[in-house]
Every structure is written in structure tokens, then in C-alpha cells.
Amino acid sequence: MFHFVELSNNVVAEEFGEGGGWFLTTNYAATTDVVDSSITSNSATEHYGRGGGIFLEAESGGTTTIRGSTLSGNQSGSLGGGLRIISRGGTTTVAESSIYGNSASSSGGGVHAITYGQGALSFSRSTIAANSATADGGGMTIINLAGTITIADSTVSSNSSGSISGIYFSSSVDTVSIERSTITNNTSGGIRGPIDEELSCYTKRLWQATGRPEALSPILVVISIQKVHTTSLAPAS
């Protein structure tokens, strides 16, 4: 367990550098816990730098938990200003944590995550706020190729990017669940990606004013949605 860790003002100054503050790998069948820690003002900003605060590799069978921790003011040259996750079948949980004020020169200002091989990724009772990205996913970009994504009892707010500033999903299979969470005041839309018809139905009345889901503002409160098949998120008619 890593408890009360403070990492600040570290720099990875190389092309394709990873983990400005921390490069963390959870190997097969291993367990890694990061608790009550602070990862601030680190950078991996050279060409294609990834994971300004933490770069995490979660291998099959491994379990990683980040709990009660803060990732703030970190920067990356491409993906994941605060946190970059690659899950190859591992289980990753971010709980009771704050990810704010981070930036990425491409995608995923707060978090950029990609899952393979039936990985499980969850965010609970956490705040992702005031992050920025040049392209998409000011708060979060999540690419779910094979696995389960859960966001519960969390807030995604006041993030900014060129497109879809709250959460950008790119999901081809399996399950994405959002429960009891608030997505609010993100500058270029709250949430977009292949999400099920229940979300489209639930938010239809909120979209009617603009006719464009990417323009949804200022607030979306998600009670409970689950993607059981992939459909395109279409404007309300």
C-alpha cells in the first residue's frame, strides 16, 4: 500500500514520456492501493507525453485502487493530464478522490482510459472538475474495447475542451453504467458516445431546447443508465 504519498513538480522530459508524477504498474494477480495521497503539478508534456500525474498499467488479474487522493495541476503532451489508464484485464477503482485542474494537449484532460480484455474500471464518490483538453474529453475520455465501466455517485463539472467537455465515450462492447451522478457546466457538452436508448429517452426533454446533445447544458443528473448494446447517441426529434 502507498499511503500519504506526495508527488509534486516532477517532469518527464522525453518524447512519448509516460507518468510525469508516477508510472505505476499492477502486475498479474498483484494488488496496489494508493490512499490519501497527493499528485500535483507534475508533467509529461514533451511530444506525445501521456499521464501527467499518473500513468497506470493494470494487467490481467491485477487490482488497483486509488482512494481519498488528489490529482491536480498536472499536464500531459497528449493523453490524460491527470490520469492515464491502460487496463489489460485488470480491475481499477478510483474512489473518494478529486481530479481537478489538469490539462492534456489532446484528449482526456482529467482522465484518459482504455480497457482491453474484460477489464473493469470504476469511479465512485469522486469529482472530476475544471480540467481541460485541446480535442475531446475535457473531464474524461474513456475507450472501452472490452470491459466494464462504472461511474457512480460522482460529479463531472466545469471541464473544457474543443469537443464534448464532460465525458467522451468510445465504447464498442460490454457495459457502461452511470448511476446517481451529476454532469454539469462543461463548456462543450456534457456526455457523448455510444450509449443506450435509455439515456436517449431520459435526456430527450433536456435536449429539445437545442436539438443537439453536444450542446446540452447546464446540467444533466443521471439517475441510472446501463449500456447493454451499442447505439449511436442521436439528437432528439
Keywords for this entry:
237 residues, mainly beta, 14-stranded mixed sheet, seven-stranded parallel sheet, 49% strand, disordered C terminus
Structure in words:
The chain has 237 residues and is mainly β. Helix content is 5%, strand content 49%. The strands form 3 sheets. Strands 1, 2, 4, 5, 8, 9, 12, 13, 16, 17, 20, 21, 24 and 26 form a 14-stranded mixed beta sheet that branches. The protein is globular and about 40 Å long.
List the helices and strands and how they pair.
Layout: E1 2-3, E2 6-8, E3 22-26, E4 31-35, E5 38-40, E6 43-44, E7 54-59, E8 63-67, E9 70-72, E10 75-76, E11 83-88, E12 91-95, E13 98-100, E14 103-104, E15 111-116, E16 119-124, E17 127-129, E18 132-136, E19 140-144, E20 147-152, E21 155-157, E22 160-163, E23 167-171, E24 175-184, E25 191-192, H1 197-207, E26 219-226
Parallel strand pairs: 1-4, 2-5, 3-7, 4-8, 5-9, 6-10, 7-11, 8-12, 9-13, 10-14, 11-15, 12-16, 13-17, 14-18, 15-19, 16-20, 17-21, 18-22, 19-23, 20-24, 21-24, 23-25
Antiparallel strand pairs: 24-26
